Amino acid sequence: MNTVIFNSENAAFKFDKKEVKERLICKQSEYDPDEITQLLELFSTDASETFLNSDDHHYFGHVAADLIGAGLGTVTCKICKKTYDACQLKEFAIGLGKSPFDINQEQKGGIRLFEKRKMPSLFGGKGFTCPEGHELITMESWRT
Question: What is the DSSP letter of 60?
Fold first, then answer.
């Protein structure tokens, strides 16, 4: 089987190379086009395994998080030294959640139309933990 192995500080993610290529092609508009081109060239080699390191290919973390969220691949937790299927991982929100459209801010005191205030910087994303609770990956996906 041709695989892509993505190593991060706490985990080693293993994906089928064909599924990774399909995901990159299908979701081109959501990813950086230059990164997609580089990754697809890297995956076009005849090597049975392609290794990516989070220090060198940080952007692939977004792809890995999407693949895991879709239930694809396996993950080896480097802390508990166990391998899990993607569907066994627990997803959690970072910041204000996966999407800026999911924000549920309760406003106290009504709307102030003419008051000058600096808008706070907001961000969000998602992450995954193994069943033992060890944080495997977190990816910020939006910022205002």
Answer: H
Is 144 within 8 Å of 18 (Cβ atoms)?
A: no
Which residues, in sequence order, are bridge partners of residue 94?
A: 125
Number of folded domains that form the chain: 1
pTM of the full structure = 0.77
Q: How far apart are CA 72 and CA 64, in angstroms?
A: 9
Profile the chain (144 residues) by mean pLDDT over runs of 10 residues. Answer: 91 95 83 82 84 83 91 97 97 73 49 54 84 90 68
Angle in degrees, 0-180, between the axes of helices 17-26 and 33-43, rounded to the nearest 10: 160
Phi-psi sector, 39: left (phi>0), alpha (psi -120 to 50), beta: alpha
